């Protein structure tokens, strides 16, 4: 009954199997690499100290600004924390012009960001903005500044809660002159150039924001342990004991509060196992990496996150198209300019659409092939082959995602307590890929230290708006710092 096409699709799909024994090896290696990252710099897992030493409990209050750079859109928002686990958020969103992401200078990019902040303030906080301009014109010294949390979702070596230098770009960004520079200082200088009443108070990775936002909105006895993103990129942050972060003592002038005995670590797990000692690899993974703008790095991310899953699938489909009669029936047409032939041409949302189609006629698959790849009249076998590959690639991504989660759960010893362990997640892949959490949970269960007990013990919940609310919460922590003066009136 199985046609040669489906037999070949099934054979390729098997290359994406990621069985229990590999999950377990992955977890053990992740724990090893994470300990190495806590002890020294320049390791494959960066384990970046964030200088955030407490998670919120829902009672925090105030008005803060937050901006978010890290995906296709730049977001500006103001967040009013009500102090009762709720908040109100006003935001604007703008697509970042491609040329600013990959070919301009850092000055162009940061000037663009500051202009968006100015436009936002004029629309939503004009009174305060005008008053500031007036005081400046009259030569007053006194300043009433908005504290701003800067969500910058790239690997940054942090030196304090509001300073850090860019280690490398990811997710298709590439502005070489920014690497090695303090991104908070770059933003502050662009803001000052426009004379805006804004102080960059905190530098925030989106995973840290997710952890903070989750902890604020669903406070439990013990707070949230992990914040994780499975979206365009992937990464996680977690609460670590200060005494385990032994490399902190090498950071000059490090200044942080020690009374909780903890600090949030930004793992940068997108770069887990860049050396490929345990990560699975197919020919499609290898080719994708070789043709990317950062070969040899973000190797975990390249197997898990939205920016890459579409490209893995495109390469596998192209293989079937060239070598196994996919889309070759006379009634089927693949235009020569179809995105099937274009690198990065296949959007990851196609995977979610395909996986979500359970009907025998496969209408969503047909519609997705038409919409994304301009392919008309695919046969049923074509659609089945697409589904077989999509399922395999998505399932491997979800099972791989269990590796860092299990490792952090084991490493922090939280599985041995009586409390529920809370994990906040965000991102298009975990939110929209059907049954992502189900596959992830299957793999978690296969890790003996987690086992079936993990089903109840580990609570995984979507945490929206980490880059807004989370950044506001960190700006709040930072604004309590003595060195920051005259914050904006903190009431609505
Ligand atoms: C970045 C991380 C970020 C993640 C999710 C990765 O590419 O390196 O800093 O947290 O994407 O946005």
TrEMBL record:
Any one annotated GO CC term: cytosol
Domain annotation Hexokinase N-terminal: ranges? 10-216
Q: Which pathway does the record list?
A: Carbohydrate degradation; glycolysis; D-glyceraldehyde 3-phosphate and glycerone phosphate from D-glucose: step 1/4
Q: What is its EC number?
A: 2.7.1.-
Q: Which residues form the Hexokinase C-terminal domain?
A: 226-477
**Keywords, ordered alphabetically:** ATP-binding, Glycolysis, Kinase, Nucleotide-binding, Transferase
Q: What class of enzyme is it?
A: transferase
Name one molecular function that GO assigns to this entry: fructokinase activity
> Its Gene Ontology biological processes?
glucose metabolic process; glycolytic process; intracellular glucose homeostasis
Q: InterPro entries annotated for this entry? A: ATPase_NBD (IPR043129), Hexokinase (IPR001312), Hexokinase_BS (IPR019807), Hexokinase_C (IPR022673), Hexokinase_N (IPR022672)
Q: Which family does it belong to?
A: Belongs to the hexokinase family.
* The protein, known as: Phosphotransferase
Q: Which species is this UniProt entry from?
A: Penicillium angulare
